[in-house]
Amino acid sequence: MANVKVYNMKGEEVGTMQLSDDLFGAEYNEPLIHQAVVTYLANQRQGTKSTLTRTEVRGGGAKPWRQKGTGRARQGSTRAPQWTKGGVVFAPKSRDFSKKMNTSARQGALFSALSKKVADGEFFVVDELKVTAPKTKEMEAFRKAFKFDKSTVVVMDEPDVDVILAARNLPTLTTISVSEINTYEIVKNAVVVFTKGSVKKFEEVYLG
Known about the structure:
208 residues; alpha/beta; Ribosomal Protein L4, Chain: A; 2 domains; 6-stranded mixed β-sheet; 35% helix; elongated
């Protein structure tokens, strides 16, 4: 089992913790991670855009002018795409962009991405994440203590409203709960921070 250091919010080492090799020591599988990220992003798309084609625009049934003899180009309808208020050529329509991915493959991608962070030294564990008030300065002090200058995601065992409010004004800091964790969030952020409780809860969810 991998052994990682546990820190407090001031960046001071306060102990160590063992991580499960099944979850945090998996083999790196880039194609699987890529598939999970593509699936996640595709499933975020609403696909609700829709405009009208020439057959759907109201009106335009009468021929604007006779076919020959006017000197103008022949026209069959005022709802053709070249007319003002005409229909749209190849108009976008509502569609379902969602993709499916097997649960075992999705979990494998998540474990692989987390294991990569652990191997690269971009994974940290803090004993707890608490603030006295929902003030940005407390989470900013936490960020500076660890020198998290790049994008960082903090995984909590339970949503803490004060922590969420304190961190939301920091552009490089994202907070999520264990139930929200996914491969995209792990890959998107340069650094991953788990609380000690969230590691235990994560292991309980996937190891039983």
